[in-house]
Design brief:
This protein is α/β, with parallel strands linked by helices and 162 residues long. It contains 5 helices and 6 strands, in the order βαβαβαβαβαβ.
Length: 162
């Protein structure tokens, strides 16, 4: 199950060409394997980036879900149920923006609130982004958040999940 978090143009990090490209690669992989896709959108921040929506055209196995705050885990589980699936039988591959907030809060919610096990919860780091950078392009707090998430999730570094 691919979960795309807040890839809306209102968020600066969602406009990064590299991030968009990596998310599209994840969509292509999910389509190839007929994997369900959940697209989370933060309420009142507009629609998902048009390039991502184009990558979903003609694919029926996805749902767009709106969330009211950073943690979209409840909305993810509701969408899983609408697919007729149960979260205990799934592996979640999570990507999007902003890593320090909505991505990490959704991952934490899936783990802590819904009991998704570490081996079934993967953050696709190359398809994530954040908007807070220092002069070297390093993300403030990225390592701190990553360290916290490593306790409950695994990290994938490329789009080839085969």
């Amino acid at each position: 199950m691919l979960v795309i978090v807040d890839m809306q143009p209102s968020f600066d990090a969602a406009n990064c060409v590299k991030t968009i490209t990596e998310v599209i690669l994840e969509i292509e992989y999910a389509r190839k394997t007929n994997e369900p896709i959940i697209v989370l959108e933060f309420e009142d921040y507009g629609e998902t980036h048009e390039d991502i929506m184009k990558a979903l055209e003609g694919y029926d196995n996805y749902k767009i879900v709106t969330k009211p705050d950073n943690d979209g885990s409840t909305e993810v589980i509701e969408a899983v149920n609408k697919f007729g699936l149960h979260h205990d039988n799934l592996t979640f591959h999570v990507c999007g923006v902003n890593f320090h907030a909505c991505v990490s809060d959704t991952v934490c919610g899936l783990a802590y609130d819904f009991g998704v096990e570490k081996e079934n919860l993967n953050v696709i780091e190359t398809a994530c982004n954040d908007y807070v950078e220092d002069y070297d392009g390093h993300h403030y707090g990225w390592e701190c958040v990553r360290e916290r998430l490593e306790e409950i999730a695994t990290f994938e570094y490329d789009s080839n999940r085969d």
